[in-house]
Amino acid sequence: MSSSKPRDLSRFGPGTRLVHAGRDPASQHGFVNTPIYRGSTVLFPSYDDLQHRRARYSYGTVGTPTVDALTEAWSEIAGAAGTVATPSGLAALSVALMASVSAGDHLLVTDSAYRPTRQFCDGVLARYGVEITYYDPLAGAGIAALMRENTRAVLVEAPGSQSFEMQDVPAIAEAVHARGAENGKGATVIMDNTWATPLLFPPHERGVDIAVEAGTKYLSGGSDLLLGLTSANKAHWPALRRTYDHFAMCPGPEDVFLALRGLRTMALRLSEHGRRGLEMARWLQARPEVLRVLHPGLPDDPGHAIFTRDFAGASGLFGVILKPVPERAVAAMLDGLELFGMGFSWGGFESLVIPFDCTVYRTATRWAPGGPALRFHIGLEEPEDLKADLEAGFARLREAT
Ligand SMILES: *Cc1c(COP(=O)(O)O)cnc(C)c1O
Q: Which stretches does UniProt call biased (Basic and acidic residues) (predicted)?
């Protein structure tokens, strides 16, 4: 399929492009999906073709029709010049960062970033001579004041991991790029866009140079897959592709196939996760045990104005701050839940809850929520059943208080 020119889908809406992008049944004997190509070695038809690498495919790490089906579809949906696929979301973030900074450079990272992103910055990039500063996620255009002569990348994430602050991404991107135009040395705006996906926040249209998606979450939709995608605009695509090829950070073909399968229904699932998530957030907000709900889709959330301006909707992940209770009461609430599972990751069909505490790793801002914090992912169970499960949980919490 990849030898044929990708179809022009630009006149269609995002949901339609999601169904048709990266797929050419005519080149697959009419079968709807591109099959799983497994392989390391690719044979060249002649000596001359081999010497001049004259072939669409040359080696398994560099690309296969299965991988290209996914990356072409993702570029179409994200509005990117190109996309690379990686074996996890964290790998997608690391390749974005490695493509953007070198020894002696300065990197700005939002204090609300996914914690393993921080660990990669502090544990790997710092060892290679990159200086890292964490900044207040609400900096907005004020990011310009934090930029140094050698600032080469700025990492954003909206809303923040666990804490759900909404960043003004267009304002940050504009300020960063204006600084680059001034001193002739640009900085790359990198975004972890996992929460929204390009369906709810088109990253490159909003000024992001390199966008990262943990496909592990909504691309899979089944908690059965680890995968990442890193997309870039035209200016940053060559550097991203080069870095990716140096690492040969290619995912396994079955995982890519599963991601393609999930991709086709992602719009439908995401809108249901979003709708049910907001319903549950409102219900939780009205509970006497709850101090605050962290969900930018709620009208009284501090990030709501930016959210309605920049986002087409919410996904199913949000936070809840409980009124102060002893830890044993939180444990009693969570231990007896029948439908909500306790575990990391999210984006699958099932509801999840985990306790979290940002105080242990934040460095630029103080996290003082006023009570125990829980992160919820709302799955595709019936909301009434989820409410009953939580209602019983709150009864256990009160009893143990
Ligand atoms: C899960 C997650 C990642 C990492 O994805 P993995 O596939 O688990 O490595 C990155 N960013 C965010 C915001 C995530 O939630």
A: 1-10
Token code pair at residue 274: 């979003």
Given this chain, do its domains 14-262 and 267-400 carry the same CATH topology? Answer: no
Please tell me if the CB atom of residue 162 comes closer than 6 angstroms to any atom of ligand 1. Answer: no
Beta strands across the sheet bearing 188-192 = 82-86, 228-232, 210-214, 188-192, 151-157, 106-110, 131-135
> Ligand 1 within 6 A of 216 CB?
yes
Q: Is the C-beta atom of 114 inside 6 A of ligand 1?
A: yes
CA angle 90, 351, 157 (to 5 degrees): 35
For residues 155 and 150, give the distance between their C-alpha atoms in angstroms, rounded to a whole number.
Answer: 15
Structure tokens of 317? 């992940």
- What is the mean pLDDT of each successive set of 10 residues along the chain, which is 401 residues long? 62 92 93 96 95 92 96 96 98 98 98 98 98 98 96 98 97 94 86 98 98 97 96 98 97 97 97 98 98 98 98 98 98 98 97 96 94 98 98 98 92
- 267-400 CATH fold: Aspartate Aminotransferase, domain 1 (3.90.1150)
d(C-alpha 229, C-alpha 185), whole Å: 27
Closest CA relative to residue 398, chosen from 289, 281, 286: 289
Domain ranges for the chain, please list them. 14-262, 267-400
Strands 151-157 and 106-110, bridge-based pairing: parallel
Helix axes of 383-400 and 266-285: crossing angle, nearest 10 degrees? 40
Would you list the DSSP string of 112-157? TS-HHHHHHIIIIIGGGT-EEEEE-TT-GGGGGGG--TTEEEEEEE
Residues 145 and 191 sit within 8 Å (Cβ to Cβ): no
Look up the CATH number of domain 14-262: 3.40.640.10
**Test site for ligand 1: of 88, 90, 112, 120, most ligand atoms within 8 A of the Cβ:** 90
Query: Is the shortest distance between the CB of 88 and ligand 1 below 6 Å?
Result: yes
